[in-house]
C-alpha cells in the first residue's frame, strides 16, 4: 500500500517511542533521564540483566548495544508484535488518533476478503466446539480425558470435534447464509470430483484451532480417531489466511510469556504444547506437522534469542532437529542461536511431564546443549576415527559446516569450540611403561581395577624452569598497554572485538575497561572516558597511561597514529595469547607431573615455550600468527579467522611502521 507523503513522518512525530517501548520493558531509573528523552532498559529482543537498550525519544530511534537491534516505533511494533508493516502502522495510528488513509481498491478488497474468511473461521470454531459436547463425540472426549485434558483445558484451547459426516460443517455454515466460495476459500470444505456437493475437510477428528499472532483463527489441525487413518494429523490447506510455513501453534500466548522471561520451548505437536502450558511452561509453540522453515525460525527469534528445541527421544525427532542445524547456521547472529533439550529415549515432553513432572523437564531445559555441541555430536557419533583419512574427512565436513556461518565473529568462535572438542577426541592417551596411564588419585579404582599410587616426578623435572616460570605479571602489563592504546584510539576498537572478548583480564579494573570499550568504543574517546570513569573513578585512564610500561609505548608518547596503534594492539594481543597458550600447556603438564614424567610432557612444554618465544621476537609477527597453540588444530592457516582479523593489519603496516 502506498501512503501519502508525510503521513509516516507525522505518525512517528505523534507516537512517543518511550511510551511504545515502555509497554515491553522496565526502565532503568538510574541511567534514564526522562526529561531529556534519554531512556535505558534491558533489551526486549535478547535476555540480559544490564540496561544496554537505549531509546532516544527526541530523535525517535532505539538501539541495543548488546544485540544491535535498532529502529523506530514502527519497527519496534513489527518486531515485538510479529505483525506486518501496515499492521504496525494501523496499531500506532489508532493509539495516536490518526486515521489511516484508504487503501487502493484491490488492496482494500483483499483486506475485506481476509476479514470475511476470518469471520467464517470463527463460525467453524464455535461449531466444532459444540460438536465435542454431543453424543457422537463420546469416544473423542474419552481420549482427551485419558491424555489428561480436563474441561478447563478443553475450553482454554477451544478444542472441538468434527463428526464423521461428509457435509456436517458445510450444512451448518450454509444454514447461516455463508457463501459457498467463502467456505471453500477458508479451506473448510473441498469440491467434489464427481459433481456433487462439496464435502468437509475434517471428518472424524479432534479439532485444534490454530490462531495467528493477532489472535485470529486461521486454520485447524485435526487428529484422526480412526487408528487406521492414513493421516494421523491433518492441517487445513493453505489459504489466504494460512501459510503453514509461516505459522506456529500458540504463537500469541508464547510471545507474551517469553516477554515475561519464560524460556521459549519448541515442541513437536499440539498435545506437547498443551501439556507444557498446563505444567507452567507457557512460552511453548509447535510447527504444524513439518520441519521448521526459515520463516518459522525467524519468527522464533523475534520472540526470543535462544529458543530451546525439544528433541523427542525417537530417531525421527532427532533427525528433524539435526536437519535444523543446517538451516540455522547461515542465519546465526550475535546472541541469536538455538539450544537443544534431548528427551529420554521414547518420550516427548508430554510423556516426560506425566511420568516425572515439571521438575524433570526443567532440568533438561537447564541442561540444553548449544548448537555447536549438537553439530559436533552429529558429525562424530557412532563413527571411529582410527586413521588419518577418517580424521581428515571429519575436518573437511566440519569446515564446510562452519563456512555456512556468515557472521565472522560467530564463525571464529565455532572454529575455536570445534578445535577444543577435536583436541579432546584425538588427544593422545599417554602411556607409562607397558600399562595404562596411572590415575591421579592414590589408590583409586580405574575401570573397576585398583591402581597403585603414582610414582613422584623426578627431581630434575621438578626443577625445570618451564614449570616454575610465572608469566602473570608480564601478562598484566600487556593488558594495560592494550587498554591504554585502545582508549586513546577508540576508532580501531572494532578491529579487535574478537581479541578483546577473548582477553580474560587479571583484575577488575582491566575487565571493566575492556567491557566499556566493547560497549561504548564506537561513541568516541570522550564518551568512553566518561563511561570508564563513572565506574572506576576520575583519572583512571590518566593513571593507566602514566604507568611506566605504558608511558614508554611509542603510540602513547605520540598519540593520533591509528596505524601504529593498530599494529601495537595486534602485536600485544598476539604475545598475550601466546603467553597464555604456554600457561595452559604448563597447567596441564603440571597435572601430568603428578604421575611419572615422560618425554611427551617435556616435548609439549618445549614446543609451547618455543611458540611463545617466536611470538615475542620482533620481526617474527608473521610466523607467530599461526604457531600459537597449534596442537593438532582443525582449521587450516587460511581459515584461522580469529588470528587473521587480529593480525591482518600487521603485514600491511609493517613497512610503514618501520620507517616511522
Automatic annotation (TrEMBL):
Catalyzed reactions: ssDNA + n NTP = ssDNA/pppN(pN)n-1 hybrid + (n-1) diphosphate
Transmembrane segments: none
Enzyme class: transferase
Annotated spans, Disordered: 430-463, 614-633
Zinc finger (CHC2-type): 43-67
Any GO BP annotation: DNA replication, synthesis of primer
Alphabetical list of SMART domains matching this protein: TOPRIM, ZnF_CHCC
Domain annotation Toprim: ranges: 262-346
Domain-related comment: Contains an N-terminal zinc-binding domain, a central core domain that contains the primase activity, and a C-terminal DnaB-binding domain.
Annotated family: Belongs to the DnaG primase family.
Protein's UniProt name: DNA primase
Amino acid at each position: 500500500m502506498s501512503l501519502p507523503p508525510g503521513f509516516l513522518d507525522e505518525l512517528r512525530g505523534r507516537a512517543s517511542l518511550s511510551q511504545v517501548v515502555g509497554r515491553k520493558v522496565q526502565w532503568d531509573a538510574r541511567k534514564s533521564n526522562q526529561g531529556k528523552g534519554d531512556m535505558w532498559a534491558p533489551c526486549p529482543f535478547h535476555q540480559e540483566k544490564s540496561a544496554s537498550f537505549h531509546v532516544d525519544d527526541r530523535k525517535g530511534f532505539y538501539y541495543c548495544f548488546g544485540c544491535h537491534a535498532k529502529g523506530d516505533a514502527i519497527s519496534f511494533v513489527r518486531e515485538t508484535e510479529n505483525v506486518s508493516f501496515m499492521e504496525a502502522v494501523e496499531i500506532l495510528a489508532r493509539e495516536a488518533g490518526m486515521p489511516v488513509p484508504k487503501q487502493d481498491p484491490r488492496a482494500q478488497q483483499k483486506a475485506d476478503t481476509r476479514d470475511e474468511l476470518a469471520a467464517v473461521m470463527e463460525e467453524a470454531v464455535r461449531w466444532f466446539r459444540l460438536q465435542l459436547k454431543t453424543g457422537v463425540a463420546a469416544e473423542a472426549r474419552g481420549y482427551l480425558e485419558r491424555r489428561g485434558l480436563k474441561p478447563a483445558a478443553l475450553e482454554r484451547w477451544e478444542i472441538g470435534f468434527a463428526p464423521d459426516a461428509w457435509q456436517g460443517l458445510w450444512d451448518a455454515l450454509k444454514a447461516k447464509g455463508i457463501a459457498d466460495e467463502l467456505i471453500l476459500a477458508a479451506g473448510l470444505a473441498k469440491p467434489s470430483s464427481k459433481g456433487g456437493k462439496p464435502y468437509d475437510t475434517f471428518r472424524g477428528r479432534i479439532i485444534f484451532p490454530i490462531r495467528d499472532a493477532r489472535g485470529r483463527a486461521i486454520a485447524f489441525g485435526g487428529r484422526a480417531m480412526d487408528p487406521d487413518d492414513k493421516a494421523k494429523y491433518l492441517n487445513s490447506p493453505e489459504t489466504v489466511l494460512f501459510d503453514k510455513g509461516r505459522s506456529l501453534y500458540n504463537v500469541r500466548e508464547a510471545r507474551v510469556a517469553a516477554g515475561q522471561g519464560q524460556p521459549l520451548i519448541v515442541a513437536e505437536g499440539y498435545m506437547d504444547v498443551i501439556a507444557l502450558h498446563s505444567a507452567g511452561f507457557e512460552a511453548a509453540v509447535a510447527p504444524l506437522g513439518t520441519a521448521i522453515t526459515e520463516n518459522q525460525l525467524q519468527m522464533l527469534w523475534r520472540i526470543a534469542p535462544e529458543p530451546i528445541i525439544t528433541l523427542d527421544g525417537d530417531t525421527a525427532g532427532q533427525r528433524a532437529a539435526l536437519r535444523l542445524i543446517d538451516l540455522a547456521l547461515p542465519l546465526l547472529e550475535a546472541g541469536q542461536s538455538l539450544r537443544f533439550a534431548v528427551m529420554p529415549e521414547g518420550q516427548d515432553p508430554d510423556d516426560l511431564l506425566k511420568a516425572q513432572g515439571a521438575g524433570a523437564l526443567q532440568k533438561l531445559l537447564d541442561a540444553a546443549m548449544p548448537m555447536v555441541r549438537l553439530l559436533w555430536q552429529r558429525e562424530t557419533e557412532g563413527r571411529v576415527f582410527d586413521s588419518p583419512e577418517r580424521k581428515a574427512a571429519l575436518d573437511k565436513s566440519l569446515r564446510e559446516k562452519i563456512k555456512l556461518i556468515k557472521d565472522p565473529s560467530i564463525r571464529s568462535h565455532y572454529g575455536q569450540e570445534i578445535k577444543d572438542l577435536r583436541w579432546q577426541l584425538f588427544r593422545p592417551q599417554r602411556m607409562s611403561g607397558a600399562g595404562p596411564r596411572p590415575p591421579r588419585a592414590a589408590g583409586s579404582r580405574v575401570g573397576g581395577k585398583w591402581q597403585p599410587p603414582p610414582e613422584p616426578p623426578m627431581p630434575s623435572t621438578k626443577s625445570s624452569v618451564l614449570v616454575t616460570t610465572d608469566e602473570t605479571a608480564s601478562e598484566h602489563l600487556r593488558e594495560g598497554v592494550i587498554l591504554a592504546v585502545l582508549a586513546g584510539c577508540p576508532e580501531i576498537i572494532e578491529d579487535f572485538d574478537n581479541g578483546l572478548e577473548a582477553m580474560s583480564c587479571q583484575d577488575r579494573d582491566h575487565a571493566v575497561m575492556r567491557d566499556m570499550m566493547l560497549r561504548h568504543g564506537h561513541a568516541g574517546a570522550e564518551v568512553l572516558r566518561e563511561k570508564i570513569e563513572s565506574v572506576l573513578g576520575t583519572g583512571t585512564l590518566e593513571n593507566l597511561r602514566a604507568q611506566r610500561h605504558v608511558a614508554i609505548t611509542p603510540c602513547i608518547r605520540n598519540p593520533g597514529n591509528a596505524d601504529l596503534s593498530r599494529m601495537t594492539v595486534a602485536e600485544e594481543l598476539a604475545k598475550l595469547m601466546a603467553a597464555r597458550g604456554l600457561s595452559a600447556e604448563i597447567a596441564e603438564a603440571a597435572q601430568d607431573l603428578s604421575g611419572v614424567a615422560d618425554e611427551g610432557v617435556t616435548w609439549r612444554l618445549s614446543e609451547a615455550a618455543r611458540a611463545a618465544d617466536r611470538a615475542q621476537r620482533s620481526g617474527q609477527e608473521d610466523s607467530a600468527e599461526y604457531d600459537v597453540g597449534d596442537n593438532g588444530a582443525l582449521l587450516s592457516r587460511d581459515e584461522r579467522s580469529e588470528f587473521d582479523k587480529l593480525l591482518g593489519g600487521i603485514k600491511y603496516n609493517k613497512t610503514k611502521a618501520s620507517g616511522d
